[in-house]
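Exercise: predict the fold of this chain.
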Amino acid sequence: MRDRDKIYGEDFRVRVKGLGIEEVITAFQSPWQNAFVERLIGSIRCECMDHIIVLGEKHFRRILRSYFENYHGTRTHLSLGKDAPDERTIQPPEMGAVVEIAEVG
């Protein structure tokens, strides 16, 4: 998601399309839409990048991949009734003890 700044020229748009990323442009004169992007960037910085020294682009991509797997698959969200964006089946206590698995860190 990006705004309509002229800094995003044709080269940028071709590269984004080549990476398989869907480009979403905010509505004309609607700066409030940038809040969604700012929230995402803030979450990534606060919860992930502020705690890790990045050693290069490949390392950065691996960190982000791990973060998003946790964010969408495991991490609970209050707005989703304490479920993850990728829905999970409910497991009753009879299935066994809860086991802690370190995923991020």
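Check your answer against the key: The longest helix spans residues 57-73.
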